[in-house]
Write a structure and sequence with these properties.
The chain has two helices and 32 strands. By secondary structure, it is mainly beta. The longest helix is centred in the middle third of the chain and has 10 residues. The protein starts with 8 loop residues before the first strand and ends with a strand.
């Protein structure tokens, strides 16, 4: 936010143990803007970048918003495609162990990638410099108690390719460097006890073996699940075998985790494409259809939005067969626990606007927020229930802890400070 007659300030929301909220602010030096943020334990780290310059600042605050450190460092200002595709990123390590910073180095069109691990006090722990053969960006960062995982996207001459790296968290030693097939697209990278579980789609049928019982798919693309160990061994790589008529028309995986019986719980969002009216009008003006006697034909590619309409939940067995597939429509407001979804009929056309926010620590509840309230889906009972009453404000789930969810509300009128609250999980 910006104060009148002054530069920008960073406003933080701190929720006290008594339920009261405070809003400490930290002054951002003139000319800097927020580029990335991460949390690890009670520490918050913000990456501030000077507009158009090679200077960046790391702003470290504690649990009550007090500024602890503001070190500056050099970070090259890239040009061309690299400027758009290689932004810096921050990641908070679990259990308050510190942070990981990734950023480009060098000013060529194919910059190196620096990976730096920092302690909770920003002391350097280790650093790795990667020299990719092509323009590369960081797509996912995940960490277990022992390893750091990076999923990169490589921009080849005529395709894109994911690459998976792992490093020992204590030393930075590289242990996995595994390229996937060209044009594989990843939705999820989830840490599980055996390593890193990847969910995505592939246009190469020979890359991932499908179980024998899978029927012939109507599409050329194949969904896949790939499990890599920390040292890069492929534990399994399978094409997902959907039950007959069980694959939604439009969906994207959001999360995955291992269940006590060894199978994996997969969670995704279903969506529908809706026209983006403002973009279409601008496009019509741009090509002369409006006001200039145009042809009346406009290209619709890129002029639509993905509107989420529901959840899809499934379990993945060791052989790649999906079981227990459920689809659930998510309405804007839920007053009481919703009945189990009807798996035989189509999803109702709810005008939904929700987002998947995460999974409870015991992997029993899926946490969502709509534009009016926070919801929880109970995986065991297949019921959707409200965690908050509906309000004339937009909630955002900030943190999912073992027994509670922290939520901020954007309070109307616009410009008013957000409210915070903590809600107990069922």
């Amino acid at each position: 936010m910006k104060k009148p007659g002054a530069g920008f300030v960073l406003e933080q929301g701190v929720l006290g143990t008594d339920g009261t909220a405070t809003h400490p602010v930290a002054a951002i030096p003139r000319g800097f803007e927020l580029a990335a943020a991460a949390q690890s334990g009670t520490r918050n780290l913000y990456l501030l970048r000077k507009t158009g310059k090679d200077s960046v600042m790391l702003l470290l605050t504690d649990s009550v918003g007090r500024t602890l450190q503001q070190p500056r460092q050099y970070m090259p200002q890239l040009g061309g495609d690299a400027k758009m595709l290689v932004p810096p990123s921050l990641f908070g390590l679990p259990n308050g162990r510190g942070f990981v910073l990734t950023y480009p180095s060098g000013k060529s069109g194919r910059p190196n990638l620096e990976v730096r691990a920092l302690s909770p006090t920003l002391a350097p722990l280790w650093e790795q410099q990667l020299t990719p053969a092509c323009l590369t960006t960081v797509e996912h960062i995940e960490a277990s108690d022992t390893h750091l995982w990076l999923v990169l996207r490589e921009y080849l001459a005529l395709a894109m390719r994911p690459r998976v790296l792992s490093f020992r968290l204590t030393t930075g030693d590289a242990e996995c460097n595994q390229p996937l097939a060209s044009n594989d697209e990843l939705d999820v990278a989830a840490v599980v006890p055996a390593g890193l579980l990847l969910l995505g789609t592939s246009d190469r049928r020979t890359s991932y073996t499908a179980p024998a019982e899978q029927g012939k798919a109507s599409e050329y693309r194949r969904d896949f699940a790939l499990l890599l160990s920390p040292v890069g061994q492929r534990q399994f790589g399978v094409g997902l075998a959907w039950p007959l008529s069980g694959r939604p028309a439009h969906y994207r995986w959001q999360s995955a985790g291992q269940l006590p019986d060894g199978s994996y719980q997969l969670i995704g969002e279903t969506y529908r494409n809706i026209p983006n009216a403002i973009t279409i009008v601008r496009g019509m003006i741009g090509i002369g259809i409006i006001g200039a006697g145009g042809t009346g034909i406009i290209p619709l590619s890129g002029y639509s939005n993905e509107q989420p309409v529901g959840l899809i939940l499934a379990q993945l067995g060791n052989a790649g067969q999906l079981a227990g597939v459920h689809e659930l429509a998510v309405p804007e407001i839920v007053n009481d626990a919703a009945p189990a979804p009807n798996l035989e009929g189509p999803l109702p056309s709810y005008p939904a606007s929700f987002r998947f926010r995460g999974i409870s620590a015991d992997y029993q509840h899926v946490i969502l927020n709509t534009s009016r309230q926070v919801l929880a889906y109970d995986i065991a009972t297949q019921q959707l229930r409200p965690l908050t009453p509906a309000r004339n404000a937009i909630p955002t789930v900030r943190c999912i802890e073992a027994d509670r969810v922290s939520v901020s509300w954007s309070v109307k009128p616009a410009g008013a400070r957000s409210e915070f609250e903590q809600i107990a999980l069922p």
